[in-house]
Structure to design on (248 residues):
């Protein structure tokens, strides 16, 4: 049965922002969302049980508690929701998962921020360009935050692409942030750009990203196993942005 099940008390929110963190190329969305949850000490709010999600249990070192792989966190003080995923989503499941989550997002009257990496030839010191896309009236958020338009045609794949597709189909307000990133390895520097140049302005937050930059190598090492799992799945199943010319 597809459902989002609350864990604890219902939060009091008013037109919240939701940040999505499904694993994708460079793990940029996951790294950014995980950092946001930890930095703001967000509360575990709901478990996600959409059809097609892997039926596995997740546990952490030093903690006996087992939780499902896709979870939602909340900060009432910041009027913020965050989606955390500790497992890749198969191509066969992305449409069902996207429709399930979109229904819940609409019920919360939330504005989602969808995160994706654009593979680019970069080294660790290079800057990462950030672009914004939108559905509904989401472009207003991008204009206010002064986020650049994409320089070329493109497509976003995987669960993030399916979520954006659902938002466009339902004509709900949403924002998509696309950041240049390393296509081979976890890219904390690109995740810091998502936070500092995009999410902070749109969600009216202040997030310290210095440790993402200074601890980039340590973070890369910790995320390497998940990155290898992502590479084991067919490339088209991973959330990422691609130039549209690749499909022409």
């Amino acid at each position: 049965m597809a459902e989002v099940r609350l864990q604890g008390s219902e939060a009091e929110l008013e037109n919240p922002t939701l940040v999505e963190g499904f694993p994708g190329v460079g793990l940029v969305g996951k790294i950014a969302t995980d950092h946001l949850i930890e930095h703001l000490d967000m509360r575990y709010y709901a478990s996600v049980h959409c059809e097609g999600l892997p039926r596995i249990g997740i546990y952490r070192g030093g903690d006996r508690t087992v939780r499902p792989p896709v979870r939602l966190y909340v900060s009432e003080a910041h009027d913020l929701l965050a989606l955390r995923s500790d497992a890749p989503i198969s191509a066969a499941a992305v449409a069902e998962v996207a429709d399930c989550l979109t229904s819940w997002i609409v019920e919360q009257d939330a504005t989602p921020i969808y995160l994706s990496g654009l593979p680019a030839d970069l080294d660790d010191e290079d800057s990462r360009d950030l672009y914004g896309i939108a559905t509904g009236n989401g472009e207003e958020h991008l204009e206010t935050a002064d986020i650049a338009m994409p320089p070329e045609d493109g497509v976003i794949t995987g669960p993030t692409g399916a979520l954006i597709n659902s938002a466009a189909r339902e004509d709900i307000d949403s924002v998509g942030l696309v950041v240049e990133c390393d296509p081979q390895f976890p890219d904390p520097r690109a995740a810091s750009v998502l936070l500092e140049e995009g999410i902070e302005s749109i969600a009216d937050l202040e997030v310290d990203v210095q440790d993402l930059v200074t601890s980039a190598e340590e973070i890369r090492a910790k995320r390497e196993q998940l990155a290898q799992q992502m590479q084991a799945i067919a490339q088209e199943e991973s959330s990422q942005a691609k130039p549209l010319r690749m499909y022409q």
